[in-house]
Design brief:
472 residues; alpha/beta; SH3 type barrels; Rossmann fold; 8-stranded mixed beta sheet; globular
């Protein structure tokens, strides 16, 4: 919300005067005009004639003056702070006990969302379909709870980033409005089917607006479900919601759409910031990407692999890298969207209880990815439950906790023992990717040998022949 001062308003309220008459009532303003404020602070604001959107001046007991637009706050927050959005864009909270006087000095607007005009679309531009799944990139602040909630539709995203109209013809719609931690294999199937429908309908690229927390799981799932892609499919998210000054939503969306529209690639990828600046948006391969930071813009990293493409936000230039599938609208997409969730990712740690493996099998697991230490190790106490699982036709695969590098179970005796029992090393496959691929493989066949064969056969760049030093 932009603070706008219209004219001086004569309402003045001295807190000392109010405290001398605490029973005084102000019926002219309803609580809905002071959303989220309760108790004594509500009465003080009512006494000043303030409402959400009012431009108010708060003078502290030591003479410090704060001016800004009153904005709503969480109903679950404390009842002691007045929240203002200042002209510089920052929000501040002023404790009631510090305030000596509250004045309404102008009238602004209550926070609301207004769509700006969308840039006129030209028919000669590439056609990019934008599907909204939810997450931070499609979120705004819910002032009732103070939390970020899914709120914007896919159409809203294009309207708040009008630059998209000069990059591509955007066909936007919403498929889900879910935070990414709520997504399941059933969602992956639906997303894959919808993406295939859009590509077969003539899209030159597809953008999926998605929450970042599980984005790398979805990118892996789509990489296996959508084979022989003729055009790029990019998952785009934001670490910081679009209502925040530091939001990366617009730049990620702009870069993602540009790459989907113009880059000479035809793979599933994740398009996010390459570093902390606003210069480059990079597309990471969907099976080689991982979220490596909770909040930084450049949280996503390509592991043991180069980028698919890079977009320069300043020059509007795109660089596509070698050794990737190239765009070809004549290529026929192969859709294999099914997943079986009866797979487990089990992380080994010191004092790991081997009974956990038996428990996972007893609970119906059809396959297990063990995330071992170093080159692919677990304690010898795990040998027996692993052996029991293998004898029950539950395949067990090994990845490494180290993220970078690759599993090599021929170096130490522990690794060789595990291979002899039946554990299958997965080279340099990421643990999350291995879990998703196992879910996908389980839906293809019930044969343990076929599942093993599928897991070891590269489908979407998830396994490389060797790890390059520059990629690690």
């Amino acid at each position: 919300m932009t603070a706008r001062t219209c004219q001086s308003v004569s309402h003045k309220h001295t807190l000392n005067q109010f405290r001398r008459n605490p029973q005084r009532r102000y019926e002219s303003l309803s609580r809905t005009e002071l959303e989220g404020y309760q108790g004594q602070i509500l009465h003080h604001l009512q006494g000043a004639g303030a409402k959400v959107g009012s431009i108010i001046r708060v003078t502290s007991k030591d003479g410090e003056v704060f001016e800004g637009a009153l904005f709503p706050r969480s109903e679950y927050a404390d009842q002691n702070h007045i929240c203002l959005k200042m002209k510089n864009g920052y929000n501040i909270g002023i404790h009631l006990e510090r305030a000596e006087k509250i004045e309404v000095i102008g009238e602004g607007e209550k926070p609301h969302f207004t769509k700006p005009k969308v840039t006129t679309i030209h028919e000669v531009l590439p056609k990019v379909s934008l599907v909204s799944i939810g997450g931070t990139i499609a979120s705004r602040v819910d002032y009732r709870t103070g939390a970020v909630q899914p709120a914007l539709t896919a159409e809203d995203l294009t309207s708040v980033v009008p630059e998209l109209g000069s990059i591509a013809e955007i066909d936007a719609h919403i498929l889900y409005s879910e935070l990414s931690e709520n997504l399941t294999t059933a969602h992956w199937q639906k997303i894959a089917e919808e993406t295939a429908r859009l590509i077969r309908g003539g899209a030159d690229g597809v953008i999926i607006a998605h929450g970042t927390d599980t984005m790398h799981y979805t990118s892996a799932a789509l990489s296996f479900a959508l084979q022989d892609l003729p055009v790029p499919v990019l998952i785009v998210g934001a670490q910081r919601s679009s209502d925040r000054p530091s939001s990366d939503a617009a730049s990620n969306l702009t870069g993602g759409v540009a790459i989907a529209a113009r880059a000479d690639i035809a793979s599933v990828g994740v398009a996010m910031h390459s570093d902390m600046s606003d210069r480059f948006i990079v597309a990471h391969r969907g099976t080689r990407v991982r979220k490596c930071h909770t909040s930084r813009r450049d949280a996503f990293r390509s592991i043991n692999s180069p980028f698919l493409a890079r977009y320069d936000l300043q020059t509007n230039q795109i660089e596509s890298f070698d050794a990737v599938s190239r765009r070809d609208k004549n290529r026929q997409l192969s859709l294999k969207p099914h997943f079986d969730h009866h797979a487990n990712l089990v992380r080994f740690y010191p004092s790991f209880d081997p009974a956990l493996i038996d428990s996972v099998v007893a609970n119906g697991a059809r396959g297990i990815v063990l995330e071992g230490t170093g080159l692919g190790h677990v304690s010898r106490q795990c040998y027996e439950p692993i052996n029991r699982a293998v004898k029950q036709d539950v395949p067990i695969f090994m990845t490494s906790q180290t993220i970078w590098g690759r599993v090599d179970m021929n170096v130490y005796s522990t690794g060789r023992d595990l291979v002899d029992i039946g554990v299958v090393p997965l080279e340099d496959m990421l643990s999350e990717t291995a879990l998703v691929k196992l879910m996908w493989a389980l839906s293809q066949t019930k044969s343990r040998d076929k599942i093993r064969e599928t897991m070891l056969h590269p489908v979407a760049g998830e396994v490389t022949e060797r790890t390059l030093a520059e990629a690690s």
